[in-house]
Each structure stands twice: as C-alpha cells, then as structure tokens.
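Methods — Computational structure assignment.
A single polypeptide chain was analysed. Its primary sequence is given first, followed by the predicted tertiary structure written as structure tokens.
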Amino acid sequence: LNLRKKRADLTQLTIQVGQSKLTGKMTVDTSGARPKSTIELSAPLIQLEDFDVGNWSPEKSHSELPIVENEKESGTKALKAGPHSSAEKLGKLLSPELLGKFDVKMIVKVKKVLSGSAELGSSSVTTILKGGRFSIIAAVAGDRLDSLNGLFNIDLPPLKSYRAEAHLNLRKKRADFSKLNIQVGRSKLAGKMTIDNSGARPKSTIELSAPLIQLNDFDVGNWSPEGGLFEQPVVKNEKKKESNSPAPKGKHDAFQEKTKKLLSSEVVGKFDVKMIVKVNKVLSGSDELGSGSLTTTLKQGRFSIDPLKLNIPGGSLDLAASLKPDKKAG
C-alpha cells in the first residue's frame, strides 16, 4: 500500500482460495469532484470447488432475532430488531444517491475456469460506474456449451466452440445491450437489444444480423430441450397398485404444463417484444441454401410474424402469420 496526497495505490494485490488465485492492483484517487477507483484483477485459474460454501447464506442469521430483556417492563421479554437483510443493504448500496458520489472501474480476466477436471472456458468482465450509471462489458468463451450444465443446473445443447460478448448499460428504467456478439463455430450473430420499463408494460427491441449461418455448427445429435423427460425409471418386481386416483403426472406432462403456462395469455400479455433477424447466407456443409429475414412482434398478447422472407435456390418465400393465445384454448 502506497499512500500519497489524495491518492492510494494497492500493488501486488493477491487473493488466493485453494487453487484459485487472483492478482492485480487497485488505485483510489480523491483529487477530483468525486472519488475515483480503478481495480484490475486477473486469474490464470479459477477452480469452482474452491468456492463451495455448502448451505451457508448471508441471510442465514437474519431470521434469528436475539431475545433481550425489556428494560422498561421487568419480567417480560421483547424481540430486538436484528440487522437488516442483505437485500435491504444491497438496495441502499445501489441507490442513485450513493452511486452518484463516486466512480469505479473494475476489470477481471479469467484465463481458465474449472469444475472438477472439466474445463468450462474463459471469461472477462469490465464493470464501470460513472455518474451513477452502470456499464458492464462481459465475454465468455469455451469449447463446449454443455460443459456449463453442472454450473447452472440446466441442460444446454452440446454446441462446440462458442463465444458470447455484450456491453450492458443500465439507466433508470432502461437497459441497453450493445455490441452483442454470439458465435458458434463459423456462425456469428451480431446486434443489440433494449429493455424499457418506463411504460405500463415492459418493452423490448432486439435486432440481430448474421453474415453467415453454418447449419453444421448447430448439430446437437440426440439432444432435446426436454432432455430425458420421456425416460421413466423401470422398477423390477414392483406390484401393481389398484387405485381409482389418477396417475401422477410424468416429467413429460410437467414439461408441457410449464410450456403452456409460459405461452398463456396471462404471461405473454404482460410485455411487448419486437425482434428483427437478418441472415445473409445459410450453408449446410458446402451447399448454399440461401438467405432470409424475419420480423416478429409480441404486442398486447398477440404474436405476429410479418414478414418472414426466405430466398432459396430457384425461388423465394414470403410469409405472414398472427396468433393470440386465448384463455379458453387448450
């Protein structure tokens, strides 16, 4: 730590947990109208098991309030208010009044992320707080997308050689994703996205373009978004039970029920979305299949495709369609 007039420098900063190690530096400058801080950290390796905290939670002790003797009424006991919850504290820390008092820039780069012996990929995150506004620049890359399944407890397709990058700017009731880039193999999508919460319903606009889509990049084999939902365990020598009660719902039924709720009029009527996608060239191996564009909207509960244009060898196709889920449907 080096201290100078209105400036502090932390050099050779090292934080290590198990095999995971972060190194870097930090500066704090108070010479201007607002204090400014810059933090730069890098890690050659992050082993996720080093940060396994079991059932620990920062909220754990907040529900247990200590019992203290009431000073005014002898013989009675009263609950003394415990500390505020982490959510309340975080809300105060992220309040515009507090965030506008200082500027911070933090850069974190991780060359390799491991879960057990499985390599999940690499990542970099730049967080900027300036004038009370948040900006985040994030990138993640890896050899197999499904290597993230264990980390997020989801079932992702086995796509190879992926990379994603985006710039996120947060303002009051608005979020902007700019320089959005998603790449799988040779296929690449670029664009932007906005989310506006200033009106009665949240509105989102998504614009994506692709110079090339190689269909072979999206070969997922036998993978399905339903995973192993159709495979029910077989129990040998199990006696059949006679019952008039309906059979319990299987995983497939549960999946259909969740999908139905997601596409219900109650859900899709709560927000508006417009998405524009343009693809300059579609390849399957070395065969050129054509190009196309798609404009879809979800407005006041109505889903529309207007238009879908496909340019294929020997002709073209224009399509428009509209659908509005009804409460009585299904």
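Note: The mean pLDDT is 81.
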